[in-house]
């Protein structure tokens, strides 16, 4: 029964991707390896006021780069010209390609996360604030619910805000474990927060609740709002 539910979710994800791509620029180029995407800011300066330069160095140039390198090693030329999202959905339910799924999904997840943050953050557009308030009651209530979800996300994983196209494009908070990606559930992500300890340990040690409460200071709400507009089309 569980396997059937997973298959249905992945099928929904594939159908959604036929007319929608979250990060269309994230590709496995033909005849070339996937690359570590450039950030919208200089990681050597950190991401004030939340992340130190050392934390950004470890997370971006070590962890994220390692996923990209392993993706290239496992994918070879088989998936040349495919988007990372297409690769994720193509192998999500293939036990023999679990390693490839993990690397592709972590590449997507990290890229999305790093696009959600910027030094000192950017203000939330009124249109998106209205959407959040309509769904959660207020922005503060949303933040409280999101932080609680992240705190309760046991072990390593991700906490997301997504659009659910199967339910009137409602905004939903979703937790995934390890390399889990909401694309496989047919959800369209608009905000990602990494709750693997490597995302925050240098600056926050094991204090995940503190990290999640501070992350709002660097969220690029303009990017999040853009993803929301894209997701509900």
Automatic annotation (TrEMBL):
PROSITE patterns per UniProt: SOD_MN
Q: Is Transferase one of the keywords UniProt gives this record?
A: no
Q: Keyword set for this entry?
A: Metal-binding, Oxidoreductase
Q: Which residues form the Manganese/iron superoxide dismutase C-terminal domain?
A: 127-226
The name of this protein is: Superoxide dismutase
Pfam family membership, one: Sod_Fe_N
Which organism does this record belong to? Trypanosoma cruzi (strain CL Brener)
Q: What class of enzyme is it?
A: oxidoreductase
> Does 4Fe-4S appear among the keywords?
no
User: What reaction(s) does this enzyme catalyze?
Assistant: 2 superoxide + 2 H(+) = H2O2 + O2
MF terms from GO for this chain are: metal ion binding; superoxide dismutase activity
The residues covered by the Manganese/iron superoxide dismutase N-terminal domain are 35-117
The organism's superkingdom is given as Eukaryota
* Function statement: Destroys radicals which are normally produced within the cells and which are toxic to biological systems.
The family annotation for this protein states: Belongs to the iron/manganese superoxide dismutase family.
In this entry, which stretches build a coiled coil? none
User: What is the E.C. number?
Assistant: 1.15.1.1
Name the residues that bind Mn(2+): 59, 110, 194, 198
């Amino acid at each position: 029964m569980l396997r059937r539910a997973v298959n249905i979710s992945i099928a929904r994800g594939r159908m959604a991707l036929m007319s929608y791509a979250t990060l269309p620029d994230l590709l496995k180029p033909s005849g070339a390896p996937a690359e570590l995407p450039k950030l919208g800011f200089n990681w050597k300066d950190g991401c004030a006021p939340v992340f130190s330069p050392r934390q950004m160095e470890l997370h971006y140039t070590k962890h994220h780069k390692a996923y990209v390198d392993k993706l290239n090693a496992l994918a070879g030329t088989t998936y040349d010209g495919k988007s990372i999202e297409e690769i994720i959905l193509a192998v999500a339910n293939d036990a023999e390609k679990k390693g490839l799924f993990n690397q592709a999904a972590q590449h997507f997840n990290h890229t999305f996360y790093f696009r959600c943050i910027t030094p000192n953050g950017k203000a939330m557009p009124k249109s998106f604030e209205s959407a959040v308030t309509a769904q959660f009651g207020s922005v503060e209530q949303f933040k409280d619910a999101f932080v609680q979800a992240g705190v309760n996300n046991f072990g390593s994983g991700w906490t997301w805000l997504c659009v659910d196209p199967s339910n009137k494009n409602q905004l939903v908070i979703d937790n995934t474990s390890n390399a889990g990606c909401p694309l496989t559930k047919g959800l369209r992500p608009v905000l990602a927060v990494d709750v693997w300890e490597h995302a925050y340990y240098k600056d926050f040690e094991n204090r995940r609740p503190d990290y999640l409460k501070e992350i709002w200071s660097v969220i690029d709400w303009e990017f999040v709002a853009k993803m929301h507009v894209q997701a509900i089309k």
